[in-house]
Amino acid sequence: MEFVKEFSGKNADYIMTRLGKPYKKVVKENAGGIVEFWLYQNLVKQGSSDKIFKFTQIGIVWL
Fold it and tell me: What share of the chain is helix, strand, coil (3-state, %, to 5)?
C-alpha cells in the first residue's frame, strides 16, 4: 500500500526518477487521450512479507 500512496497522482518524471527505466512500455490511445503502461519487474514487496511481486504496472495518462 505504501507504493500506491507514494506514486498515485505523480507525473512521469517523478516516477522515472524514483523507479528508473521500466522493463517494458505499452501505449494505448483512445478518444480521451494516450495512456502509457509502464511495467516494472521484481520491484514491489507484498505487504509486510519478504515476497516480491514479479511485475508491477503503472499507468501514465497523457492528456
Answer: 20, 40, 35
